[in-house]
Design goal:
This protein is of the alpha/beta class. The protein is built from 8 helices and 8 strands. Helix 1 packs across helix 8. It starts with a strand and ends in a 14-residue tail after the last helix.
């Protein structure tokens, strides 16, 4: 049975699709058969990213397919080790459906209250709709260099009752250029940026292992993606 990760947001521009692609690539790199279900059929951001990845012959391949409904994506889930829902850039009933079906929902957010408040509203909505609180985590994305602001954002989310993943992804041109080439955040030309992304990816790997208690026998020696 596939492990399912839902990457959701209440607004656009939080790094949702970028994070979904990071997860897919990180798990594919340790031998998992991963697939991204791109639920944003109007833009197909992850779908277009995979086309660029194929054009540039970048390995590992991370299959991406567009789906108009979560239920259709779930029908093919068992063909994969990992299915990642890359949702629409706003909360919908599909967001709730994907969260209920997933082992983990990750909500990326920036540091400003304009980002944090709607993200917490989304988390509360998913919790009230039946998603267990321990299966909802936040990821700090597109952050600036202020350690004080990062700490304040973590405190805000923690006080709201949710876990925040270790690490933070900075807002850097190197990430956007890598994405333009079909690369994930761990595949930039800048080692320091790769390390930030690897820390976030490893935190997600660890969280999934914690929640599912599932480590495939052939992966025992490859639990670190760094």
């Amino acid at each position: 049975m596939a492990i399912k990760i839902n990457v959701a947001s209440q607004k656009g521009g939080t790094g949702k699709s970028t994070l979904a692609r990071l997860i897919g690539t990180a798990f594919a790199a340790i031998g998992w058969n991963s697939k991204i279900a791109d639920l944003d059929t109007s833009q197909g951001t992850s779908f277009q990213w995979r086309s660029r990845r194929l054009e540039n012959k970048i390995e590992p391949d991370v299959p991406v397919e567009q789906f108009g409904q979560v239920e259709k994506a779930l029908k093919i889930a068992d063909q994969y080790d990992l299915l990642i829902f890359d949702g629409a850039p706003h909360s919908t009933q599909a967001t709730r459906t994907a969260a209920l079906a997933s082992d983990l929902t990750i909500i990326p957010t920036g540091l400003s209250r304009d980002d944090l408040h709607p993200s917490v509203v989304l988390a509360h909505d998913l919790f009230k709709s039946g998603t267990p609180r321990e299966r909802i985590v936040f990821a700090l994305c597109r952050v600036n260099d202020s350690e004080a602001e990062i700490r304040e954002a973590r405190q805000y989310l923690t006080q709201a009752g949710y876990e925040v993943l270790p690490g933070a992804l900075p807002q850097k041109t190197g990430y956007s250029r890598a994405s333009d080439e079909g690369r994930a955040l761990t595949e930039t030309r800048h080692p320091s940026l790769n390390r930030h992304a690897e820390e976030m990816a490893q935190a997600i790997v660890n969280k999934i292992q914690e929640l599912t208690a599932t480590v495939r026998p052939d992966q025992q020696a490859q639990r670190s993606i760094a």
